[in-house]
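We modelled the chain as a single entity of 172 amino acids. Its sequence is:
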Amino acid sequence: MRRLTFEKGDHVYELEDPSHSIFLVRAGKVNLITTYPETGEGIDSSFGPGKVFGEVEIVDGRTRTATAKAESRSILLEIDREELMDILFKKPEDSLVLSKSSYERLKELYSDESLDSDMARLREEMQLSIRDAVVAHESRVVTSHNGMAAIAVPIILMVVLAVGSYWFFHRA
């Protein structure tokens, strides 16, 4: 376990970073955010003292699915994957460092013995797919709006010139 300190606005990790550990908030507040092209940053979830985040990605060994950003000065404990596995399966008595809900969720996600763990992983993947589809849609909308502006500006200029010319030549 490592103790880390982040100032307000610092990134704990960013979207697509490798996932090697989870984080326990000892003090402060950390937000998981998604950046949407049209509307900016959206807070997916917030974690205060005693809460654990970053566990979902290490279940499947995938990259980070959001950006973790300190909302205020924050002190975190970083627990790497190997140490987490020891806590969950070899030394469950040390699980007091995790909240009960985080411990239960991790056990559910890591267990290969039940349909419930498969369903929990599928729910996580579905939520990520929906969020990624919204981000992709907003990217297309922004591109489309930029294209419309490129077409509209010359048309507006032509209309202004036509009205100005009519006014200039037909004034009394």
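As a brief sanity check on the tokenised model: The first strand starts at residue 2 and ends at 6. Residues 8 and 22 are 20 Å apart (CA to CA).
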